[in-house]
Amino acid sequence: MPKRDGGGGKREGWIPSTFVIVLGATMLLPFLYMVSTALMDEFQVLRYPPALAPTHPRFGNFPAALTALPFWRYFFNSGLVSLAVVAGQVLTSAAAAYAFARLKFPGREKIFLGFLSVLMVPAVVLIIPRFLIVNALGWVDSYAGLITTELVTVWGIFLLRQFFLTLPRELEDAARLDGAGDWRIFWRVILPLSKPALATLAVFAFVDQWKSFLWPLVVTRSVRMQTVEIGIASFHGIYYSNWPYQMAAAVTAVIPLVVLFFVAQKYFVRGIQLTGMR
Predict the structure, then answer these.
(1) pTM
(2) What are the tens digits of pLDDT across the range 142-189?
């Protein structure tokens, strides 16, 4: 007869669960403290020992902070740039990934290896060349300057290529028997089956652009073209000691990302699960 483990298996199951809970709490606590600070008054934040929760929540900090600078303009710029970059990266990455995964042409593997080698180049190294190109085209302090250099992502091409490799070729063969060409197969067969991977790329692209700081700082000049991250940095310079206002602005900037994650969570998680790493 098999021996009973005496509950040892259950005790061992608590170890990874406890680790995940502790790790999740560690990552969540800074955000919760940011929200708590946003609801405090200026003197409560600066007192010693520091308070962990507001004595009297001041919800008025949010409208006061968002009207101290033209944050409505910052949010509009960040939203417009992020959506344009998401559309561009999804289209360019999907087209290039399909070519690398399914089409046969001379030097395909070498070209793909060259694409992957770009991932080893630090992004900060490319800031000056990118700026010189944008400046030569007259796109400094414009939406074109903010968007155009972000429309292609090597990581997105790699992600979608790996996903396309997991799709059965029988579906494409059946479409070819019906007279479909490469473009129709790509548009009617591959893309509909790739919604989880496309959603994953879209979420990553949106988050990356929304929190982008260095490139918008370099390529923008006027207040009307600044994004949310630049606005928060400017806010810190003006209201250096007013931490509730700064935290209120930061919390508001995070809200679109939280909403996006919960809306696209199903596709996001499934895309991570199904993207094969061959």
Answers:
(1) 0.84
(2) 999 999 999 999 999 999 999 999 888 888 888 888 888 888 889 988
Query: CA–CA separation, 250 vs 77, rounded Å?
Result: 16
Domains and CATH numbers, the chain: 62-274 (1.10.3720.10)
Can you give the chain as a three-state secondary structure string? CCCCCCCHHHHHHHHHHHHHHHHHHHHHHHHHHHHHHHCCCHHHHHCCCCCCCCCCCCCCHHHHHHHHCCHHHHHHHHHHHHHHHHHHHHHHHHHHHHHHHHCCCCCHHHHHHHHHHHHHCCHHHHHHHHHHHHHHCCCCCCHHHHHHHHCCCHHHHHHHHHHHHCCCHHHHHHHHHCCCCHHHHHHHHHHHHCHHHHHHHHHHHHHHHHCCCHHHHHHCCCHHHCCHHHHHHHHHHHCCCCHHHHHHHHHHHHHHHHHHHHHCHHHHHHHHHHCCCC
Give the closest residue to 82 by CA, choosing from 265, 218, 266, 211.
211
